[in-house]
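Archive transcription. Copying these from loose printouts into the bound notebook so they stop getting lost. Printout 1 of 2:
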Amino acid sequence: MPKIEHVGLTSDQVQNFIDDGFVKVESAFGTELAKTCRDELWVEIGLSPDEPETWKEPVIRVGHKSSPPFIEAANTPRLHRAYDQIVGEGRWFAPKALGTFPIRFPSSDSPGDDGWHVDVSFGTDNADFMEWRANVKSSGRALLMLFLFSDVGPDDAPTRIRKGSHATIARELLPYGEAGATLRQLSAKGYASTEDCEVELATGAAGTVYLCHPFLVHAAQPHRGKQPRFMAQPPLLPKGEFDPALPPSPVQIAIRRACGLTF
């Protein structure tokens, strides 16, 4: 198994997170560990990598996985150091599971879930998911994360990311205050305010993790490649609200810079 360096992000990577809303962490976990996780997911969905004729759906979703390989992938020393650098030491919970998993298969059919959006973070007890909410303090979510469990090239349905869109969303959330905005309110105009943002594709080798600002606008896309794409898109959960007694984290700095806030 290749050795994973126990180093964190460079200062340039931290700044890129503040500016762009995400940072790509290569070799965040091992390729053999990624394969172990893929093998478990194949069993979960009842399909085989050797029988492509059975891949009928463009996407199959698996909920949360809490078996040891997935917990190990989410908690490498390299990732823990990066969580500290982006969210702040002692301000996040170590993941005890990963999910959800939108497993995408080569298909000419639309996946039906490829619209631009942000991931909301509280109010999820409401039966209408369009009423789930986000606020300018990002209550309930420290990060959005994209874990690549297979190699993902440009044709393999990589997540589309609108660079810098997190700043626009922060400004749009500000007038809603502590109560926040619903997903219905946020998506009312189709995220047109971010349509001029440069688009980056979340590509990389298995074992790559994208650490994304909670307000980053992103979208799925159809799979035009040959091999299924295995990815998890979990949150990193915060231990509490932003604490003004502590130095602001890069997540907070990005929001403050966008909105001129002092929290």
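Printout 2 of 2:
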Amino acid sequence: MTVYAALGAVEQGLVYGIMVIGVYLTFRILDFPDLTVDGSLPLGASISAVAITHGINPYLSLVFALMGGFVAGMITAVLNTKFKILHLLASILTMIALYSINIRIMDGPNVALLGADTVFDVVIAAGVPGRYAGILIFGVFGFSVTAFIVWFLKTELGMAILATGDNPKMITSLGVNTHAVIILGVGLSNALVALSGALVAQNQGAADVGMGIGTIIAGLASVIIGETIFGHSTIARAFVAALLGSVVYRLAIALALGLEFGDFSFNPSDLNLITSVLVIIALIAPNIKKKVAAR
């Protein structure tokens, strides 16, 4: 793996790490399996791209992306809590609807940002080389989002989200509206996913309706890898592990794609296979570790 490939993997790991934090919020904190993320990531990308092409400041476009992702998550949560649709089915319905909505927003399958202003312009103008601008911007966004979520979950409202995911009957008996908490939590999760999509679009120079395919798999893989390597004994450690797990996941993929065994080598089309193997290793590693420690 070349230095350039490693830098690219770290860059991708940090920006998709924001998405992983959103996935962690629903799957681990709220215990709410949510497939909406496959649609909310390109939703954020499409909103940001269209906003920029219409002359809106790229940083302001991120706010619009956050709002769009929050609404998408709210729809999934409302379908589940108010209309009693199974969370998996509700998220699939929203994800399918978002495919058409994203095409409507972009007025086509994709939007190019070639020559348009992006969040990287300020950093590059300050003298930071282009190859490091993405790592700097995504690192700031990634760790800022992590710090915000850790702080938020320590507030009274954040405690309600933690309690709702851990013991909904108990928190209901204390007078907390669990439906409202779930709607807020799933909305916040998808807002972060949409933010990640908006940053990815600005980094890649385009938004595409198909860029969210496999997002949930990558998110879960990063969460599992992060928990396995860095642990999750506290809230702060768990979210930092999720962010770093995303970086490790992208580095592992870059390393695997660069391996060669004689005439055999991995292709980008093998990405799903590599992801599956990584998740399997991450899942069985703790059991192997326990057996070795017991012996």
